[in-house]
Amino acid sequence: MVNIIEIKKLTFKYPQQEAYNFNNFDLKIKKGEWLAIIGHNGSGKSTLVRLIDGLLAPESGEITVSGIKLTPETVWDVRSKIGMVFQNPDNQFVGANVEDDVAFGLENAAIPRDEMLKRVKEALDRVGMWKFADHEPVRLSGGQKQRVALAGIIALKPEIVILDEATSMLDPEGRRAVLEIIRELNQREHLTVISITHDIDEASKAQRVVVLDDGKIVQDDVPAEIFAHGSRLIKLGLEPPFSEKLKKELVEQGIKVPDEYLTKEGMVDWLWQLFSKQ
Amino acid sequence: MGKILLGRYVPGDSVVHHMDSRAKLILSFFFIIIIFLANNWQSYVLLFILTIGSIMAAKVNFGFFIKGVRPLIWLILFTVLLQVFFSSGGTVFWKWGPFNLSYYGLINGAYVFCRFVLIIFMSTLLTLTTAPLEIADALEKLMMPLKKIKVPVYEISLMLSIALRFVPTLMDETAKIMNAQRSRGVNFGEGSIMQQIKSVIPLLVPLFVSSFNRAEELATAMEARGYRGGEGRTKYRVHYWHTGDTVGCVIFVAVMIILLFVRHW
């Protein structure tokens, strides 16, 4: 698989700060991959994705997105490859109503109107919001607004979707709906997904998890390996998955549990075997 | 806050609702100008017929218009009374110091009252039948010629549409902050004027700070979605000038011509 994003020797700090957020940072992301970036508050997750999108400029180092080297001249080309969904559903809603908001990015890209009408409808159908097309943002729930934000990105047909804690302000229902759409985009259209999250469900759906701590990668592995260390997760600002918590409780009850990470289904299978053996 | 009628849009399906927002905006301005041509009762009757006709064409509940006049009633009465008591001419009915009640004054007062009511009716009709966003669009289109003298028309209209979109959001937030501060013991609208002014601070400062944060996040989101300024964008919303708009303009111009004759009756 080709790398869609390559970061080499990235160095960055905010102008008013002394300490460096990133120092000689390297990261490669494969095309079609779903990567979750986790870490405690202030570990540099949001800064990293803003650097990738060119919203922040690095001090030195090189970022290549889809074969384009990020420079002040190419920043708009790079941005056209990336769709970003931010945390607060209200503060990224530009349009006066749903369809206007989805069209905003298309207007910026100077897409002809006929094409725009088609794409707006398609994108809103994808997220199941077409029947709300003429609704104003005040009449929508947080989850619906976030689905509109996603539609705005789907309409632009990017190669990479970045979710900057996009589900953190949603209720469980809205979160599930948004994640379902992301999963579909990733699997069916092979979009590269980078999600920054504190949510365990979101991280467990990823193919690879990168754990950041003060601008350094402390772990880079499949979710199962990351989740096998329950207590460490808490320190990293992530709640352990339910199966890990159950395992911990069982250990306290004196029951011997397997060391490796078990998914919910894996846990059910193991419990069922445990009793049939006795 | 529920009393504010400005920008309250009532969706509907009528001739006026379907008119081009540019036409409606132009006609509203035009109407306000021709009101000042009216100088006798015949001309006011003519304008009232035009206004009531427009309202009937819009099929909007008349109660909205009375509500539109109500908040301004004290201003109207004050102006009318000034006119009535300080104008001189014609038969004087009553006189005391600088005040006098004359035939001319009464007529003038009535005219001023009519003007106010007509202007409020027509502008209420505009906002009731036109979505705020359409008004913003119409303003952008009508301001286009100003681009020649380097007025940033796109930017003004973007600011206008964002401002309109955030009005309800900020209203919600204001209510939330007020309730949060109340729960911590702040009394809004009580005590002396100084105390009342002071009690607004715990509302205003958080509102300002959060607006700054919102602006920052919104700007980042807009940039991430490829916003590079007003030039070179295409438009999702388009407006078409229908025959109905031309008919509306013709009616208003015809009324103006009749008005010019009636004026010199």
UniProtKB/TrEMBL annotation, chain A:
Keyword Transport: yes
Residue span, ABC transporter domain: 5-239
An MF annotation (GO) of this entry: ATPase-coupled transmembrane transporter activity
Transmembrane segments: none
Cellular compartment(s): Cell membrane
Membrane topology term: Peripheral membrane protein
Pfam families: ABC_tran
GO CC entries: ATP-binding cassette (ABC) transporter complex
Main location: membrane
Keywords, sorted A to Z: ATP-binding, Cell membrane, Membrane, Nucleotide-binding, Translocase, Transport
Gene3D superfamilies: P-loop containing nucleotide triphosphate hydrolases
Matching SUPFAM superfamilies: P-loop containing nucleoside triphosphate hydrolases
UniProt-listed NCBIfam families: ECF_ATPase_1, PRK13635.1, PRK13648.1
Similarity comment text for this entry: Belongs to the ABC transporter superfamily.
PANTHER family given in the database record: ENERGY-COUPLING FACTOR TRANSPORTER ATP-BINDING PROTEIN ECFA1, HEAVY METAL TRANSPORTER
Descriptive protein name: Energy-coupling factor transporter ATPase
Organism: Liquorilactobacillus hordei
